[in-house]
Amino acid sequence: MNDIEKTIAALNRKGFHAVYVKDADEARAYVLSVVGDDEAVGVGGSMTLNETGIVDALYERGNTVYSTTLAKKLGLDADKARRDGVSADVYLSSSNAITLDGDLINIDGYGNRVTAMAYGPKKVIVVAGRNKLTKDPMTAVTRIKEIACPLNARRLGLNLPCAVTGKCNECSSPQRMCNVTMRIQYPASGKEFHVVLIDGDFGY
Ligand code: SF4
């Protein structure tokens, strides 16, 4: 088995609905098939979701979408979108890392994304590329601090040490992005939790 197959098997053993898709088109089609036309969708900030066009497709179909990226584009209140997203019908996100044993590891600045993945919307859909797969939780955190955070900090124009040097120095900046770390080992009770693994590299 390759790493994607191992991870999907581990996730399904633990009660996630994990599926393999070969590209962004299949990922988008899967998400549109499991989100009802009338369901409101909260969205965690994610390059993967932008690159795959999933958020745009939901919005164009007529779903109510609570996304900070979309809110900013439409001149709406991004903080309200963040708050409304946590109590939507569905939560859509990527994951900073997924271990081969099927753990989802995420680090948040605001905490809205990890809250929604653990509690809140009854249906959660995580979409991630194969580049997010890591051996174990420690490797996952290292990956997030050394790859995801510096790139996100630069993208957002934040004045953080990792944005400048590419390395984490466990800063205490007011703009710090690493405030809440969460490891989801099994879906929280009562949740329908989908994980869509794309056979390609998306986001970071
Ligand atoms: S703790 Fe600070 S320096 Fe380290 S990755 Fe997070 S934001 Fe960057």
Tell me what the structure shows.
This protein is α/β, with parallel strands linked by helices. It has a single domain (3-198), classed as Rossmann fold. It is 40% helix and 21% strand. The protein is built from nine helices and ten strands. It has helices at residues 3-13, 24-34, 47-52, 54-61, 68-73, 78-86, 112-118, 137-155, 161-165; strands at residues 17-21, 41-43, 65-66, 90-93, 97-99, 104-108, 123-129, 133-134, 180-184, 192-198. It has a six-stranded parallel beta sheet with strand order 1-10-7-4-2-3. A four-stranded mixed beta sheet has the order 8-5-6-9, sandwiched between helices. A hairpin with a 4-residue loop joins β5 (97-99) and β6. α6 runs parallel beside α7. The longest helix has 19 residues, at 137-155. The model has no long low-confidence stretch (mean pLDDT 96). Iron/sulfur cluster binds at residues 145, 149, 153, 160-162, 168-171, 176-178. Residues 145, 149, 153, 160-162, 168-171, 176-178 line the site of iron/sulfur cluster (SF4).
Helix content: 40-55%
* CATH classification, class level: Alpha Beta
Biggest sheet, open or closed, and with what strands and sense?
Answer: 6 strands, parallel
Q: Distance N terminus to C terminus?
A: 24 Å
Classify the secondary structure makeup into a structural class.
alpha/beta
Order of helical and strand elements: HEHEHHEHHEEEHEEHHEE
Q: What would the average pLDDT be, to the nearest integer?
A: 96
> So, CATH architecture?
3-Layer(aba) Sandwich
Overall spatial form: globular
Total count of strands: 10
